């Protein structure tokens, strides 16, 4: 049954339809904002390499993974290394400090979107210093986003909104090996848009504005990662510059694998 469902997933069509929605929504937003066109992260967690290859074949380059072990396996997969040499991996799950080295040594790692604490920022900064010393091909800084818990849910990771400026400042001042490109949130699932805009999106945009005001940054240059398959259109309307879309492209997800 799973194989039949997988066979019916048209990843190429999913990519095209998602990009079309992004384009249409962005064009409508242009009148209100000078934020850059949103980047699509194809969230490939629990999905096989074959589907990643399909997405890559139609021009998709940015892929997101939530689980450390799954990212390790995919980033080192022989077919990915051979056929997807320009792939850019974004880690979008909870990263524990004891798993930092598993992630940052991976080929084509582009960004860690979930820096949720000073401890993790410090660990990434120290580890990347070592990576740079050992691998001349690694770029000067590791791209990261500050994760903010906009919904206040205990099971969600991220700093509280009032601490966003402080964590951004710490990365800026104390972590020379990290390039903090902006902010990210997961937010509460299942918001009813008939009741109005998503408050989590508004909270993240406020955090972005506070950071830009504090550090004299152009808001158009500070990334905002929010919005998934069921609400990326509304996220773009609210100001998102990075959307993380999985099931709309790859189909419904299988059961969460065991991380390691």
From TrEMBL:
Domain named Alanine racemase N-terminal: residues: 21-253
Keywords associated with the record: Pyridoxal phosphate
UniProt similarity note: Belongs to the pyridoxal phosphate-binding protein YggS/PROSC family.
N6-(pyridoxal phosphate)lysine carried by residues: 45
Function comment: Pyridoxal 5'-phosphate (PLP)-binding protein, which may be involved in intracellular homeostatic regulation of pyridoxal 5'-phosphate (PLP), the active form of vitamin B6.
GO terms assigned for molecular function: pyridoxal phosphate binding
InterPro entries from the UniProt entry: Ala_racemase_N, PLP-binding_barrel, PyrdxlP_homeostasis
Cofactor requirement: pyridoxal 5'-phosphate
One Pfam family named in its UniProt record: Ala_racemase_N
Keyword Metal-binding (UniProt): no
Organism per entry: Anopheles arabiensis
Name under which the protein is recorded: Pyridoxal phosphate homeostasis protein
């Amino acid at each position: 049954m799973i194989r039949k469902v997988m066979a019916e997933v048209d990843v190429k069509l999913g990519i095209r339809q998602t990009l079309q929605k992004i384009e249409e929504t962005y064009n409508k937003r242009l009148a209100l904002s000078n934020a850059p066109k949103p980047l699509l992260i194809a969230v490939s967690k629990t999905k096989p390499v074959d589907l990643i290859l399909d997405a890559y074949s139609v021009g998709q380059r940015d892929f997101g993974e939530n689980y450390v072990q799954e990212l390790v396996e995919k980033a080192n997969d022989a077919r990915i290394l051979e056929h997807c040499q320009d792939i850019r991996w974004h880690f979008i799950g909870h990263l524990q400090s004891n798993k930092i080295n598993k992630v940052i040594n991976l080929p084509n790692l582009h960004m860690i979107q979930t820096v949720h604490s000073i401890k993790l920022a410090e660990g990434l900064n120290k580890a990347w210093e070592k990576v740079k010393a050992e691998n001349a091909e690694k770029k000067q800084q590791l791209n990261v986003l500050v994760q903010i818990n906009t919904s206040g849910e205990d099971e969600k990771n991220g700093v509280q909104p009032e601490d966003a400026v402080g964590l951004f400042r710490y990365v800026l001042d104390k972590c020379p090996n990290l390039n903090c490109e902006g902010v990210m949130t997961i937010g509460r699932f299942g918001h009813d848009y008939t009741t109005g805009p998503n408050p989590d999106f508004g909270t993240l945009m406020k955090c972005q504005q506070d950071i830009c005001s504090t550090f004299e940054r152009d808001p158009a240059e500070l990334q905002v990662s929010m919005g998934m398959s069921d609400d990326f259109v509304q996220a773009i309307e609210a100001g998102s510059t990075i959307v993380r879309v999985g099931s709309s492209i790859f189909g419904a997800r299988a059961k969460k694998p065991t991380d390691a």
